[in-house]
Amino acid sequence: MMSAYRLLFLCFVTSGIAFFRLGAEPTPTTRGAQRESRATPEEPNITFNAVHVDGPYIAMTFDDGPSATLTPKLLDLLAAHHIKATFFVIGENAAEHPEIVARAAREGHEIGDHSWSHPNFGKMSDDGVRRQLQQTDDTIKSATGIRPTLMRPPYGSITARQKRWIHDEFGYRIILWNVDPYDWKRPGPAVVRNRILKETRPGSIVLSHDIHPGTIEAMPSTFDELEAEGFKFVTVSELIRMATPRQAHVSPQPNEEVPPRAIGSPSPVSSPAG
């Protein structure tokens, strides 16, 4: 009888140990999630929609040009204000007006790749995206003598996997935005200006388009107001080089004044003319 009790006791102990070990072993899903979390911190080195900076620096960006008539007017205005901007050009337009792209680069503006014909990258094959980027890359190099280092996907549409292989193959940083006046809807110069003024913060990347007359009309007063508020204008690459680490958040003590909220980097809202 005692032997039977001992046998039952040993079986119980052995089963308990096996259950404990089984429960302590992480599942494949958990291990996969751990790998994913370790990869995530690399993302900000590839993709930017705003930059944390110490100082009132912002980057004005203009998409979809060059326009034969509007982009030269914008370049004249930028020169008058001593502002350096970043142009994300469409390859077809750049091939048609290489002299405008060359002028922009010569005057200190940055030129980025915005695809050849403005398709939705998120719905394309890798080979299709590759051709779009390479044609535009070659066109920019032909016009300016240097290859671009920045890319903005049309509509802001791009997958995480596409970001990685595009960065690996082309060396591009993927540039989105955190200020969008929706000027592609042509709401009028005053609305474009007011939206930019309302949303712009230090480190902002401001989206607009140098193919819409209302946008160009909005820029003189927009620049005046931004300058009056103390903002300083730099190219996107210059803004990225100014990046500073964020301070760790510390909960305030009782009766301690809460500091102003740090400028964040919210996800961009894709627009049909991005």
Brief overview:
The protein has 274 residues and is an alpha/beta fold. Helices cover 46% and strands 11% of the residues. The N terminus is likely disordered.
What does this structure look like?
The chain has 274 residues and is α/β, with parallel strands linked by helices. Helix content is 46%, strand content 11%. Strands 2, 3, 4, 7 and 8 form a five-stranded parallel sheet that branches. Strands 1-6-5 form a three-stranded parallel sheet. Helix 8 runs parallel beside helix 9. The protein starts with a helix and ends in a 33-residue tail after the last helix.
Compute the separation of the termini in Å: 82 Å
Which fold name is given in CATH as the topology? TIM Barrel
Counting DSSP E segments of at least 2 residues, the number of strands comes to 8
Sketch the topology as an H/E string, one letter per element. HHEEHEHHEHEHEHEHEH
Derived from helix and strand composition plus strand pairing, the structural class reads alpha/beta
CATH class: Alpha Beta
The unreliable regions are: 1-42, 254-271
The CATH homologous superfamily: Glycoside hydrolase/deacetylase
**Overall tally of domains:** 1
Average pLDDT, all residues? 83
| Contiguous helical run count | 10
Radius of gyration: 26 Å
User: Helicity, in percent?
Assistant: 40-55%
Provide the β-strand percentage band: 5-15%
CATH architecture descriptor text? Alpha-Beta Barrel
Tell me about the biggest sheet? 5 strands, parallel
